[in-house]
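Hi R.,

Here's the chain you asked about this morning:
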Amino acid sequence: MKRLSSSKRVVNNVVKGEIEWELRPGGMLVQKRTMGVEVSSGPVIKIKVSHGSYHHDISVPAQSTFGDLKRVLAQETGLEPKEQRLLFQGKEKDDEECLHMVGVTDMSKVVLLEDPASKERKLEEMKRNQSVVKACEEVAKVRAEVDKLSEKVIALDAIVRGGTKVAEKEFLVLTELLMVQLLQLDTIEADGEAKVQRRVEVRRVQGLVDTLDNLKARNSNPFGSSCNAVSVTTKWEAFEFGVGSLTAPTSLPSSTRITQDWEVFD
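And here is the predicted structure, written out as tokens:
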């Protein structure tokens, strides 16, 4: 065998085929491991891993590394290897350190801790998820109210298009109720999916208010031709959270057109 200068050596065994070897810390030459923690030969040891109030009995080849142990523990605990910290005899061990080289034997005890930074990230993510769920529930409540108001707008539209005169109070009341829901949406702090849902409802409410404005104009002039009808649109202003708010409307032109064309009677 020819020893290479690198930390990992590879030699060929011409009798049993090509075998890869590696040099472990301390100068021990062992057969190189394949993917995972599987080793073709060698004793298997059982390690008692303590993780908070949980205890795991993990069986791994004696010549495994702490990195190998972390990969096995990932399947047992759900913690990714980079989220784990392994302590043996009170000292944290690196992934490259071999179990047998630091004295880990059968039935040895190892302590598993979750990385504090990883734990903090999970807590923050959990809080964000809870916030999103809460915001979605608040948007859903507004959506239910808007559904009811939308049905009233549709009914009012059918009446106006049928030529029946409607009291102006009906338009004002519906508009005010829709504006209440718009203000309610404005108070919801949302991120992610909740923010998308809120934006959809905001545009929906704005569309219903615009519809009421046009119905009100049509109701005041039911005999006006379509070419002379005034299109009424409400001006919306975007706030910091992206929610539209009603601004003071500009003066609208009258549906009556005044001209100075005189007609001579007999």
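One quick note: Confidence is low (pLDDT under 50) at residues 1-17, 34-40, 225-230, 245-249.

Cheers,
M.
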